[in-house]
Amino acid sequence: MIVRYPEMSICSLRINNVISPDRYDVLEYRRDNFPAAGGNFWSYIDVRDVATAFRAALEGESEGHEVFLIAAADTCLDTPIREAIERHYGPGADYAPDYGDYQSAFDCTKIERFFGWKPQHSWRDQGD
Questions:
Q1: Residue ranges making up the domain that contains 119
Q2: In contact, 37 and 79? CB cutoff 8 Å
Q3: pTM of the complete model
Q4: How many folded domains does the chain comprise?
Q5: Where are the alpha helices (DSSP H) in the chain?
C-alpha cells in the first residue's frame, strides 16, 4: 500500500448524541420512556465537551490515523447501567468489577491517554 501523505495525522472523533444544556429535556424524555428509549446505550455528550474534544485533538500530537470515542462519563438514566442493559437487551452482559452504576457504556480513555481530554459536563449537574 502506498501512503500519499505519511506525515499527516488524522483524528476521527466518534461523537455520541450531542446535547446542548438547554436541551437536557431530551434526556429526561429518554429517562421517562425507559427502557424503550435505549438507543446508543443511553449515551450523550454535552456540546461544550464536544468543542473541547475537537480542540484537544487539534492541539495534541498523534501519528497516522486514530479513532476516539466521545461521550459523557455517565448515561442519561437514573437507572443503574447493569439493570438498564439487562432490562432492555436481556441478561448476560459482563462488566468489570469496578464498573460504576451510571458509567457510560462508551470508554473514552483513549482520548484521555492521547490528549488529556475528559468530559466535564453532565445532566446530573444541572442545578449546580
A1: 11-123
A2: no
A3: 0.88
A4: 1
A5: 25-32, 47-59, 81-89, 109-115
